[in-house]
Specification:
About 55% of the residues lie in helices and about 0% in strands. The chain is mostly helical and about 400 residues long. It has a two-stranded antiparallel ribbon with strand order 1-2. The protein binds Phenylacetyl coenzyme A (FAQ).
């Protein structure tokens, strides 16, 4: 493991106190002040840094919901893998669905750095105690839905998630860099799929339009409730977990989609859509928030089916987890009883790749994406952040 060259924020150099900063080095006000200063200076909070309990729990809540969305989100599109119209489309769709599983893994890994386990989070999902995105409770009725999901759902996901590449919590921000790159590809494949349909036969054009009609409004709901009903936004924005409000991102998404819909040759199902010269944005009609609330309560068209399928997949996968655990135990025992030259070489290579110290209580970092990448993310809005080694610490 790469040695930590500077002490984690919130712990005095050389102090042996607990990682919450309450040890021999610093007073509670000092660690809070160090945390506040780091957030104000746009520095990253890392797993071993002191952080307020509510910051930690907010992150666990959001990252867990996000991770659950990625893996539940595999279901609607996986529904079409066996019926994809060509080998090329099937290969693309399989790769996309696999990517979503990967996103779930990065995100569960990021949540683990906060001291929670993947098992615990999955138990909460399966018990209905944690949410996943409302969007995945709608059915995929035709092949065109695969295109509409790529264009609109992945498009909304990117609009929401690119700013998360600059989230104040390091492991989440770094996971988002890679996720956003892949989501960009997903969005383009959806657009290209719809374009093929709108340039096709009359029946294909009608199928594309019908899919857009059904996915447009639920996609706008993905951004969350309106700002005046968003319980977490103000605090999450103060902590720089969220960088923009729900309504700001929703508006950004509408502005991006209107010209794309025109280029595609589809109509967005909103008679109130019109350009507002004064605001410099597209005005759009009222969202049915009652429908959103019903979906969140579990009454969407597919809530029951999605959770049932997830629980069944988890139960059916028990033997894989047991086999993996047995393999890991065997591997650990081999290491304990004597290093072969090969094992030692493997370890050295792995150590070189561990760029960031893991959480004191949690497993290793979810990915090794470079720390600087979030600030070069596609929204281009990020100021460069201080690197771990140059940052001044409490
Ligand atoms: N669905 O106070 P706020 C994807 C809940 S990934 C369900 O505004 P916050 C990739 C919210 O949790 C899509 N629940 O909350 C893909 C809270 O409930 P709680 C997922 C929602 O956290 C593509 C309550 O309402 N993306 O699509 C929703 O500040 C294709 C009050 O709301 C993320 O998770 C909703 N739409 O803002 C995969 C991105 N909206 O916890 C497969 C990260 C709100 O108090 C195929 N998350 N709620 O019980 C975020 O950016 C934020 O969490 C928001 C919500 C913006 C979603």
């Amino acid at each position: 493991m790469t040695p930590v060259t500077s002490p984690p924020r919130g712990r005095a150099a050389g102090a042996d106190g607990p990682p919450d900063g309450s040890g021999p080095g610093l007073e509670a006000e000092d660690v809070q002040a160090a945390f506040d200063a780091a957030v104000a200076a746009d520095e990253r909070i890392e797993p071993r840094d002191w952080m307020p309990d509510t910051y930690r729990s907010t992150l666990v809540r959001q990252i867990a919901q996000h991770a659950h969305s990625e893996i539940i989100g595999m279901q609607p599109e996986a529904n079409w893998i066996t019926r994809a119209p060509s080998l090329r489309r099937k290969a693309i769709l399989m790769a996309k669905v696999q990517d979503e599983a990967g996103h779930g893994l990065y995100l569960y890994g990021a949540a683990e750095t906060l001291g929670t386990s993947r098992d615990e989070l999955l138990d909460k999902l399966h018990a209905g105690r944690q949410k996943y995105s409302s969007i995945f409770n709608y059915p995929t009725l035709t092949w065109a839905d695969v295109g509409a999901i790529g264009w609109l759902v992945d498009g909304a996901a990117i609009t929401n998630q690119v700013p998360l590449c600059r989230c104040s919590y390091g492991p989440y921000a770094r996971a988002m860099v890679r996720i956003c790159k892949e989501e960009s590809f997903h969005q383009r494949q959806g657009y290209e799929l719809l374009l093929a349909l709108t340039r096709g036969t009359e029946a294909q054009r009608a199928m594309a339009q019908d899919a857009v009609d059904r996915w447009w409004w639920p996609s706008l709901m993905m951004f969350g409730p309106p700002d005046d009903e968003s319980s977490h936004s103000a605090q999450s924005m103060a902590w720089k977990i969220k960088r923009h409000s729900n309504d700001e991102l929703r508006q950004r998404f509408v502005d991006i989609c209107v010209p794309q819909a025109e280029a595609l040759g589809v109509t967005l199902p909103d008679p109130e859509l019109r350009w507002n010269e004064e605001r410099g944005h597209w005005d759009f009609g009222a969202i049915d928030w009652q429908e959103f609330r019903e979906v969140l309560k579990g009454n969407g068209p597919c809530n029951e089916q999605r959770l049932h399928r997830r629980r069944t997949a988890h139960e059916n996968g028990a033997w894989v987890r047991e086999a993996a655990a047995a393999h890991a135990a065997k591997h650990t025992a081999t290491h304990a009883t004597g290093h072969t030259a090969d094992h030692a070489a493997d370890r050295t290579a792995a150590d070189r790749d561990d760029r960031v110290e893991p959480a004191a209580a949690g497993p290793a970092q979810p990915n090794t994406a470079p720390d600087t990448a979030p600030d070069t993310a596609p929204d281009g809005a990020g100021a460069p952040s201080a690197s771990r080694s140059t940052r001044s610490r409490a």
